[in-house]
Amino acid sequence: MTTALIADDESLLRDDLRDKLTALWPDLVIVAEAANGNEAADLIARHEPDIAFLDIKMPGQTGIEVAQGIETDTRVVFVTAYDQYAVDAFEREAIDYLLKPVTRERLAQTVTRLKNAVASDVPEAAPAPELAQILNLLARAGGSATAAGAAARAPLRWIRASRGDTTYQIAVDEVLYFQSDDKYTIVYTANGEHVIRMPLAELVSSLDAEYFWQVHRGTIVNVRQIVAAHHGTIVNSRNVLSSKRDGDGRVWLNVRDVAKPITVSRAYQHLFKQM
């Protein structure tokens, strides 16, 4: 049995896609439908569907952010009204996508490819580095041709973050990592935790992509603190970071003075391949 999830904030478009899928692939079981990105991420983790049809522009998390955080072997099909920049990126990296409005003919092609992939019984490979970079760029630039403009903006150097009733001016260089907390972002430094009244999805476009790597949909790490080592231990003057792979092939990061390990999403595991 092949299972699928449909995520789109427009109910009429969800209904239309479900009806077309039912006609083209009667054996496909739609196990869940989501009206926003946060709901889609939760339902994917709960049901682990074989396929996820993700609208890119959704409230909460975008479809791209949801895809970045998937930890299962779920195959993703983006449903998009994006411009040619995104379409070219998808074509170049063989990412399956459907352009709105979704036509029966185009969906039939996608269904054929998905059936062949499922029949091969080969788990989907982790995204290549180029794909991870494309997803990250689309997420930062809103998925449009304004990517160049986003890249041209001067990166953030200082942030105002609070702890209790006190507000602090923190140099971005001193941040160990950022963690999403719904509409807020937690800032971890050597001096403790602070809070920014801004969601991580908005903050990411202001950070220097060369030095701040997204390792999960809700986590961005300052890589200037990292020195790779083959035996899983990374040491420098300000931070200690190690990585290990568990039996399922997942990667976890341990940061000095932080008890809870950081999970690396499959889309970014290539960054820590040598650790």
Notable characteristics:
elongated; OB fold (Dihydrolipoamide Acetyltransferase, E2P); five-stranded parallel sheet; five-stranded antiparallel sheet; alpha/beta; 16 strands; 2 domains; Rossmann fold; 275 residues
Show the helix and strand layout.
Blueprint: E1 3-7, H1 11-24, E2 29-34, H2 37-47, E3 51-55, H3 63-68, E4 75-80, H4 84-92, E5 97-99, H5 104-120, H6 129-141, H7 147-152, E6 158-163, E7 166-171, E8 175-181, E9 184-189, E10 192-196, H8 200-203, E11 212-216, E12 219-222, E13 233-235, E14 240-245, E15 251-255, E16 262-264
Parallel strand pairs: 1-2, 1-3, 3-4, 4-5
Antiparallel strand pairs: 6-7, 8-9, 8-12, 9-10, 11-12, 13-14, 14-15, 15-16
